[in-house]
Amino acid sequence: SAVKFIVRKFPAVETRNNNQQLAQLQKEKSEILKNLALYYFTFVDVMEKRILCIILQTVNFDLTRNYLDLVVTYTTLMMLLSRIEERKAIIGLYNYAHEMTHGASDREYPRLGQMIVDYENPLKKMMEEFVPHAKSLSDALISLQMVYPRRNLSADQWRNAQLLSLISAPSTMLNPAQSDTVYSTYLSLSVSPVGFILCHAVLNSDAAALSLWKLALQSSSCLCLFRDEVFHIHKAAEDLFVNIRGYNKRINDIRECKEQALGSMHRERRKFLRSALKELATVLADQPGLLGPKALFVFMALSFARDEIIWLLRHADNIQKKSTDDFIDKHIAELIFYMEELRAHVRKYGPVMQRYYVQYLSGFDAVVLNELVQNLSVCPEDESIIMSSFVNTMTSLSVKQGKPLLLLIFMSRKAVAYTSVSKASLGIADHRELGKMMNTIIFHTKMVDSLVEMLVETSDLSIFCFYSRAFEKMFQQCLELPSQSRHSICFPLLCTHFMSCTHELCPEEVIARDRSLSLCNMFLDEMAKQARNLITDICTEQCTLSDQLLPKHCAKTISQAVNKKSKKATGKKGEPEREKPGVESMRKNRLLVTNLDKLHTALSELCFSINYVPNMVVWEHTFTPREYLTSHLEIRFTKSIVGMTMYNQATQEIAKPSELLTSVRAYMTVLQSIENYVTIDITRVFNNVLLQQTQHLDSHGEPTITSLYTNWYLETLLRQVSNGHIAYFPAMKAFVNLPTENELTFNAEEYSDISEMRSLSELLGPYGMKFLSESLMWHISSQVAELKKLVVDNVEVLTQMRTSFDKPDHMAALFKKLTSVDSVLKRMTIIGVILSFRSLAQEALRDVLSCHIPFLVSSVEDFKDHIPRETDMKVAMNVYELSSAAGLPCEIDPALVVALSSQKKNISPEEEYKIACLLMVFVAVSMPTLASNVMSQYSPAIEGHCNNIHCLAKAINQIAAALFTIHKGSIEDRLKEFLALASSSLLKIGQETDKMTTRNRESVYLLLDMIVQESPFLTMDLLESCFPYVLLRNAYHAVYKQSISANA
What we know:
Elements: H1 2-9, H2 19-22, H3 29-48, H4 61-82, H5 87-102, H6 109-118, H7 122-129, H8 134-142, H9 148-151, H10 155-160, H11 182-186, H12 193-198, H13 202-205, H14 207-219, E1 222-226, E2 229-232, H15 233-241, H16 248-260, H17 264-286, H18 295-318, H19 324-327, H20 332-348, H21 350-374, H22 381-395, H23 406-420, H24 432-449, H25 451-459, H26 468-480, H27 490-494, H28 511-548, H29 554-565, H30 595-610, E3 616-618, E4 621-623, H31 625-644, H32 657-673, H33 682-693, H34 705-722, E5 726-729, E6 734-737, H35 749-752, H36 754-793, H37 795-803, H38 808-817, H39 821-852, H40 854-865, H41 873-885, H42 894-901, H43 909-926, E7 938-939, E8 944-945, H44 952-966, H45 971-988, H46 1001-1014, H47 1020-1026, H48 1029-1047
Antiparallel strand pairs: 1-2, 3-4, 5-6, 7-8
């Protein structure tokens, strides 16, 4: 309520008689002074800087332009002031707090308050203020009558004149571009209708002024005050003139111009400029030397394009009723792109331009200026000294001097200013040729010293910083249109312009910095995402084509060929014949465009944009577009590889390794082709992604194909082996499904044969296969821990049996006291199965590495094979570890040794060693019980048993080698002891008469042969001493005979 009271009474706020309304502000007066001081004194600065227009009437372009800029700045300042809604509240509150604190109003308050009241309607007030200056202002505006219409020609007129074309007249291509009004050809000379409003009387008295006024009203509907603050000129002018008598014609003019102020003319201009700038950029890229003589064309093109882009940006965001076609330009990116290309040419070949104009100044301009000075009829002494010094300085210029030519620019401007004042003896108004020449010289010196400033002056588009919503919309439209996506890089490049939009009076302003960095990052990120999505779609198409070549699809084709040959009916009638792979490449004409063609075209366009610049600097931050694409490709490649496994945790389904490998190779082939579009190191992407996939988790903590396949093989395939649904067939070197009541959802052979295991090794690599091995060993370690518990439960009986193997009756009595015999054999079988699977994986890894690094693998193998027997075990284990990593088989498995060593030990080493020995005893004396199992029948076709007991051979040898390596015992002695116990136990079942007990006696006998064949520590001679070979021969004969009769 207090603030409302101050605003209502402003500026005469009675503080003494209104204590009740203002009482609540008493406590806050210090805070008000502190917080509003900055705003209050800003208003004071505006008041102090109110411009007193100086009469400057001259043919000097710089002074005329600065004068008009001064008027526009003053007008803009006062109009922006009137738009601050809280101005009265801020000033009134501050003054009240000042009066309460210091006992008197601020000394600036009366004038400041009066100014705020006077400028409630700023244009009306300024019309009164500019009455004394109407003549000078109108003369300055009318002086543009020869320049402004030329800058506002239609696109057809530009096209007919072949504006900006370097190749329209080849014979004059090397001639320097000249103009009587050099500056006005490339500077933005948008005549502000506000200037004519301030000196409106001239509209009724001067036809040229009226013509310029109408032209200005037709070209724009809204004018820029400051950044994104605009001013709707038609409505404001009509509201002012409606109260002035005799201005009905001017009001009608305003209404007519408003109707004509549409965007069609500007739309056609932009269309022309796109083709003109493209031609200009193409010619200059091929012949950069033309930048010297045709520099004026470049800056004209940049200026024209800049004006049209800013016009579109301003009107598209502020005009409510508009034609969509006129105010939405989907090809604006192309125009901006060619602007950036021209800017890049100027920056790149700046030394070429500087060298050209240094020679031009000394060899031509100096000569012409000297002639003009010599031909002057009257030349006072002061002016003569200045001109002579000026000519001498220019004549002495050389390429070796290079830049800077700041002294020359200063001297030229001093000469122009000296001759421009009204009382000068040598008036430049009377010597127009001299004035034109001086302006031309100033332009040429800028070409040497101020190229960067010239680029900012003619092509700065930092205004986009304050139209971020429209900026982003233009970018999205560019990406959506495939033909324009090649120009999308212009949007991040525009963010480099934003560094020039901060004002030197506000160096702390960070809005432009933050916005430019965020927009540049967003644009590059979106471009990379778009390219990534296109690449992903191409990869999907290629993976589909690769999938058609998989062996699983050939069965139907073979079947059709066989049936066709035998003239049998091929399936249902009307069934379409399956297309063969490669049909997609057959085309009848070049007009047929497939989806893959469209994707490649779109990708090549977008990659051109990403590859356009290696990096860009925005506010001391360097952005590299290619790195955005690389990072996105890495992320998508990682997700795609994991996605292509098609792992379903609920159903435990997963892609075959060979099929995944085919898809990954197709994916990599596409990614490899990206190097044809963009200069990126795709090998780095492969290394980063594929190496991460060999670990348990990737860099984002997500599961990899290594963890997925390891879990699947352990939890699905090997678990079903333990359940008796799958058996390991040594003859096929694969796990095969067994006929059971509940059929499995997958075929084990299709995941475990040699080709699949090789594919798995290709995918996981040595690191991934090592992780797989470690996971397998962890499961073996847990089984061994359980076996040790069973040994502890039977330790006394086993101790007696170890020393009584030559006493059959006593052994039989002790055997009956054993518990969990079946559990021991089952756990040992599980260990054997896991070790058999690992041997398949290791063999596949060895095959893969032998193809990739044959010399290294052969060196490792040679190293392993030549370890002396007397070598220290630690050294030998290091060699075994190296060999195991290369997939080579070792006498002692280092991974198993590490796994068993890590088990918790609560007893002494001697007890541990004893338990290890008794474990071998337990397995040996339990083997005869296998003969009574129906599934223990040996099958010669698979070279094994359907209940996987043939895997006991690998389990016994590997476990014994690992345990006795850990406990530093003799592996050979313990295995001999095992063989003696096992032989003795198995010979006893030969004396059994119970057929149920001995039904598969011969099949179990063969286990002894398998154990010896598998062991590097046992020999057949040793077996012969324990178990007659004739029994083994008869056993083989019996099982083969039984197999033949069963098949018959």
